[in-house]
Amino acid sequence: MVTTETVKRLTRISFDLRRDIVKMIGVGKAGHLGGSCSLVEIVAALYFQHMRFDPANIRDPNRDRFILSKGHAVLVQYAALVELGVIPREEVQKVKTLDGLLQGHPDLKIPGIEAVTGSLGQGLSIGVGMALALGLNKSPARVHVIMGDGELSEGQLWEAAMAAARYKLDNLVGIVDRNRIQATGPTKDIFDIPHIEKKWEAFGWNVLTVNGHDVTAVLEALDTAKGNKGAPTVIVADTVKGKGVSFAENTAAFHNGIMNQEQYNTALSEIDAARATLI
Asked: Does domain 4-276 have CATH number 3.40.50.970?
């Protein structure tokens, strides 16, 4: 059962993650605000509640694995690792600079990163391999792979989906960030993929659908997935691109946009004001 205190704690963390994302992008520098902000509650639920992940022992062989297949949204993962103390906070101000550790896509040099991703469609294949290896080693660890809805047009992803079902990888959970907007516009106008849930069902997966910004719903779906046996589970999460930043919500321009000073200040003010209502 998800308690009220857990929801409040994760909601506060979600605001902190959004604030970190905005600060990482800063003023006059392109950054993936939209797809990072759409994942905030999901990432908060995973790292700060659901996953077996010890910030003091990030190489624990029995840790749960997190693969961000839509690697362009890595700012949200960086933010979580900063809040957990895995990545030094001073790196927030140095993202995508020669002096900084944190670049625009995940890299194995970064503490807490499990795979190099960002070439879309490959993350689920990596997750399948990890899940197979963990199963052979009889490890209790689980693998979580986050994909974008635009990414579902990649063929390799569906080959991985077939393999996961064939090998009954119930230690593997896929999460689809269905924010309905990709780099240049609505997904339905670029490469429409209707009936996403039915497609995953046809590929042999257990399928759950949730509001990706509802912490309780996300945690309950993750718990249900953990209890499902004999097949992998995918959680289709309905989200809002740029959630929490008014001028970026449902706007393709902020898939990888540039904020001016006024927008930067507005974003931080909106996040801080929303967080203040929880105290």
From this structure: yes
